[in-house]
Amino acid sequence: MPQFDDEPQMKKAAKEFMLKFHEGNPGDFPDTATSLGPSSYGLLVAVAERLADAGRPRVLDLGCGNGALCAMVSQALGGRCQVTGVDINPVQTERAQQLNGAENISFRCAPGDRLGLPENSVDLVLSHMSFCFMPPLEAVLREIDRVTADGGEFSFVVGDGERDIGIELEYQEIANRVMEEEGVTDLGQALVDPRVFDIEAFKDLVAAHTSFAAPLERQRFQLPLKMTGAEYLTFITGDYGWSLLSEAGRARITREVAHLLPDDGDAPVSAAIALQQITLTKPKPS
Predict the structure, then answer these.
(1) For residues 123 and 120, what is the distance between their CA atoms, to the nearest angstrom?
(2) Residues near 85 by beta carbon (within 8 Å), at least 6 away in sequence
């Protein structure tokens, strides 16, 4: 397994790993109801609907992947919007373009801190499970602030892992233990800035680097995983760290997790992923 002499070397390896990982894995997320009602995607779409009704139809999806959220926003608004999807991975943006041919949706390949868009050119920036993987966070926030028009908003969904429940929490504990024993650095998590999840630290970042107004809005919720035990064992193989483990390590995790599941592989599992939605508003000039 690779060893890293310093943090910059690890960050570089993590970026390369993430780009390669998402060439073959579009990063789709379960589009199912959450404890708040709508899916995690639907919660972001609702913000787009509210702003479009107020005459603010320009939407940017930051970390758009294969363009799933872009398509959902466009469909919900009946095409009465202009949606731009941005992703750092050219394979993802090419795939998104192939899957989404609507005239009001466009895609571009760019990093989060250098979007290449004009100032004040969007009314709403959305990001689904991507914002936390975009270092340096200060520069990305400044860029989001730059492209967002006065009165616009930034709304994103990220994990809230300390509140995972059921088998998902137990799986994470098993996987972390096996990775530590194998000396594996979870490159999928190496880019994550923990300040995204620390609400007070994030408020300080927003205040220091943007003109978004306080207070921010935060909703914490859970996404139940509606799947059988057999489906769950397949689901966990999509984790970033899975491909970094040895075959023996993966087999060990599978055995330990399977031991916690119902004997009937078709029986539903009790699991939920903890998530949060944070929304910032850029004030209009007084």
Answers:
(1) 8
(2) 60, 61, 64, 67, 69, 70, 93, 96, 100, 105, 106, 107, 108
Q: Specify the residue for token string 């999807």.
A: 85
Per-residue pLDDT tens digits for 39-61 = 999 999 999 999 999 999 999 99
DSSP string, 159-205: E-GGG-EEHHHHHHHHHHHHHHHHT---HHHHT--GGGT-HHHHHHH
Q: Give the Cα separation of 27 and 240 in Å (integer).
A: 10
Residue 265 in this model has a pLDDT that exceeds 90: no
Beta bridge partners of 228: 268
* 177 phi, psi to nearest 5 deg: -65, -45
User: Strand 82-87 to strand 122-128: parallel, antiparallel, or no bridges (unpaired)?
Assistant: unpaired
Q: Which residues contact 126 (CB under 8 A, 6 or more apart)?
A: 44, 47, 48, 59, 60, 61, 62, 69, 73, 154, 155, 156
Provide the token pair at 126. 């959305």
Cα–Cα distance between 12 and 17 in angstroms, integer? Answer: 9
Strand partners for 222:
274
Which residues neighbour 103 within 8 Å (Cβ) at sequence distance 6 or greater?
none
| Single pTM value for the model | 0.93
Cα–Cα distance, 4 to 73 (Å, whole number): 41
How far the first Cα of the chain sits from its last, in Å, is 56
Considering only CA atoms, which of 279, 278, 271, 280 is closest in space to residue 30?
A: 271
